[in-house]
């Protein structure tokens, strides 16, 4: 199994896919990658961290508390990331996502410059706004992933007082559309039909009067751009008239 995972992880991950089934199958089943396994470990780690310390989990001859299990799973995530790096495979959105989840597991208030570096290396911060926009599973995943990374960068900066690693001046990626996961993972014709409705746009949320996970993600993304302006004022220093020095 390890050999299969290594072989799959060495292959370039195809980013731009329109069909949800093809997209999911490209990193699941027989195409399972170390990034995929790392993502699974992050969910198991978060789940274990929510259990009470009095709950015990037998693993072989050993017994662990929920917190200990969470730490074990977090270590497994770290090893999956290390393997991906040692394999020398090109970075991809799956790798960015597992790094993002690992950062959240390690600390709620510690930034990760490597995460931002990989994010910008893949160009997730400068996805152009196209008109008309025809969403796909891959394009919306990229938008959603960047919104999460951008938001956590501002949260970390607010807690630590450090300058943010991502600035709105260098960001052109639109927020993800307020489209339900069921529609996004369903038939593409239905996805395009929903995307063409007047209520769906880059500026509208609470489509269909439903509070979805992506709705919260969009709201946090909007607040992150406002937070960016506040950080520019609170952390910035004005050194005279810049325009005058360029004349």
Automatic annotation (TrEMBL):
Matching InterPro entries: Sec_Metabolite_Reg (IPR050613), XnlR_reg_dom (IPR007219)
Residues annotated as domain Xylanolytic transcriptional activator regulatory: 73-182
Chief place of localization: nucleus
Subcellular location: Nucleus
Statement: the UniProt record of this protein carries the keyword Acetylation: no
A Pfam entry, by short name: Fungal_trans
Swiss-Prot/TrEMBL keywords: Nucleus
Record-linked PANTHER family: UNCHARACTERIZED TRANSCRIPTIONAL REGULATORY PROTEIN, ZN(II)2CYS6 TRANSCRIPTION FACTOR (EUROFUNG)
Protein name per the record: Fungal-specific transcription factor
């Amino acid at each position: 199994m390890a050999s299969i995972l290594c072989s799959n992880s060495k292959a370039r991950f195809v980013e731009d896919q329109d069909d949800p089934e093809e997209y999911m199958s490209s990193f699941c089943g027989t195409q399972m990658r170390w990034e995929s396994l790392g993502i699974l470990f992050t969910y198991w780690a978060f789940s274990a961290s929510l259990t009470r310390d009095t709950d015990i989990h037998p693993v072989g001859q050993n017994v662990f508390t929920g917190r200990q299990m969470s730490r074990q799973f977090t270590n497994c995530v770290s090893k999956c990331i290390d393997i991906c790096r040692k394999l020398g495979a090109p970075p991809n959105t799956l790798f960015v996502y597992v790094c993002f989840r690992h950062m959240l597991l390690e600390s709620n208030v510690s930034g990760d410059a490597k995460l931002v570096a990989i994010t910008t290396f893949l160009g997730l911060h400068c996805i152009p706004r196209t008109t008309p926009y025809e969403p796909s599973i891959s394009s919306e995943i990229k938008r959603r992933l960047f919104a999460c990374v951008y938001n956590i960068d501002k949260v970390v900066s607010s807690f630590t007082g450090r300058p943010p690693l991502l600035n709105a001046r260098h960001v052109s990626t639109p927020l993800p559309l307020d489209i339900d996961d069921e529609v996004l993972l369903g038939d593409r014709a239905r996805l395009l039909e929903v995307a063409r409705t007047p209520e769906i746009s880059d500026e509208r949320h609470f489509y269909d009067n439903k509070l979805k996970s992506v709705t919260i993600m969009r709201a946090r993304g909007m607040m992150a751009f406002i937070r960016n302006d506040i950080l520019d004022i609170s952390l910035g220093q004005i050194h005279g008239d810049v325009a005058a020095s360029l004349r």
